[in-house]
Specification:
GO molecular function: D-glucose transmembrane transporter activity
Order of helices and strands: HHHHHHHHHHHHHH
InterPro entries: GLUT, MFS_dom, MFS_sugar_transport-like, MFS_trans_sf
Subcellular location: Membrane
Pfam families: Sugar_tr
Number of strands: 0
Largest sheet: none
GO biological process, one term: dehydroascorbic acid transport
Shape: globular
Length: about 230
């Protein structure tokens, strides 16, 4: 019985990462086809559904609902998608700061979740369903606020070829003024992408020219879990 509980606990914890792997793997295709804003909206809906499923798992007396909810949370948390959208809608002088805030709030959210999970707060036997469902609150806020934001200007210009839509989005985001330099940068990026072959994950792993970069990324990703970022 103890072994079965340990196995179920391990699956419940790890299935989040499996969902995240699948969500991140398909993020490029979905963002090119539907746009980053629409994908983010769908992510928020998926997160709210997942939170509702996990929140009702105790009433339904079903641990399978927790598994399903955790998996859906992993799929909906396409981290590259958030970084891309935040970076692309930010003006050039604030782009680095905007990208860094994504990592900051990601770590802050994990810290708040760990604090809220204490038995004295929401980690008690009666309140843990509320803790499981609390992940739907930020998604609900974003779902309400995101429709007031335009689509990413680079997406409109590079993938849709909508130069007027791109200019309108830039004015809405950055205000009236001369933004031709930013548009020229996007055009240069479009020209570069046209002449550059997009590698699949398997091709990237097999490419010798990127071997050391891959080693560095893997080492950084593994060791960052040991640097105390969650405690900070």
């Amino acid at each position: 019985q103890q072994d079965n509980l340990l196995f179920l606990w391990s699956i419940t914890v790890s299935i989040f990462g499996i969902g995240g792997l699948l969500g991140s793997s398909g993020s490029r295709y979905l963002t090119v086809k539907f746009g980053k804003k629409k994908c983010l909206l769908c992510n928020n809906v998926l997160m709210i559904v997942a939170a509702s499923i996990m929140g009702c798992s105790k009433i339904a007396q079903s641990f399978e609902m927790i598994l399903i909810g955790r998996f859906m949370c992993g799929v909906s948390l396409c981290v590259p998608l958030h970084h891309q959208y935040v970076g692309e809608i930010s003006p050039r002088k604030l782009r680095g700061f905007a990208n860094s805030t994504s990592s900051f709030f990601w770590s802050l959210g994990k810290a708040i979740g760990q604090i809220s999970g204490q038995r004295e707060l929401l980690g008690s036997q009666s309140l843990w369903p509320m803790l499981m469902a609390s992940c739907g609150l930020p998604a609900l806020v974003q779902l309400v606020a995101l429709p007031f934001f335009p689509e990413s200007p680079p997406y409109l210009l590079i993938h849709k070829g909508d130069q007027e839509g791109c200019k309108k989005a830039i004015r809405q985001l950055w205000g009236e003024g001369q933004h031709q330099a930013e548009i020229d940068d996007i055009m240069k990026e479009k020209a570069t992408m046209r002449n550059t072959k997009i590698l699949s994950v398997l091709e990237l792993v097999k490419e010798p020219a990127f071997r050391w970069q891959l080693y560095m990324i893997v080492i950084l990703t593994v060791t960052i879990q040991l640097c105390g970022i969650n405690a900070v």
